[in-house]
Amino acid sequence: MHPGLKTVIELQQLDTEIAEFSAQIELLPKEVQAIETQLNEFIHAHEERKLRLARNLKERKDFEVEIQSIRAKISKHKDQLYEVKTNEQYKAMQKEIEGEEVKVRGFEDQILEKMVEAEDLENHIQDAAARLDSEKARVAAEVKKLQTLRQVDVEKRDELQARRDADAVSIDPELLAEYERLRRGKRGQAVSKVRNGMCAACNVMLRPQLLNEVRTNEFVMMCEQCGRILYFVEPPPEAGDLPGQAPA
User: Which of 201, 204, 231, 207 lies closest to 219 in space, CA to CA?
Assistant: First the structure.
């Protein structure tokens, strides 16, 4: 095989692996952020429920104060019933007392609603409080695991990059420049194998003369359609061609 061709094939393999590790390395911080966001949302919801419970308690106390005030008015009005002179005044006072009692029942209904809401909030708060420490521990463990994986990926990528740099030094500068140009313009794939007489990258059939030259792997040849550097890999033998096995 042409030495330059062999090197660009190795470069392509290394660049592909380096790109994969780089993508994983860039993705891991986002995964860490997503996990931490889940925990923060859990804590925020927990704190929000505690605030709602505090507001609930205050509103119930405010309702109770209103009820006490209204009941004081009702008691005063009932005392005044004995002082009225006419039936009209008596009926007016009774109507006013009934109106105040309706208000009391309305506040009492709201207190009952708040008590039901408070019970639900307390259950959620107790459940979240019991889970909070375990959630923090789980998130910390997952973040540590992801950070460890990222460090491993960084080390593997750096190792591949060192091998890549060594290969790049050994190749003809003009061929390296052509490889780099193609890699930038072909979405990272500058080299393509020939499969079934076609460029595997663009799936265009090679001319017979070009195919014969590529099959030798002794020349640096380009695909006439997509411009990528071509190389040939001998296909595996068919099952009937294996030694010691008769054709079907």
Answer: 231
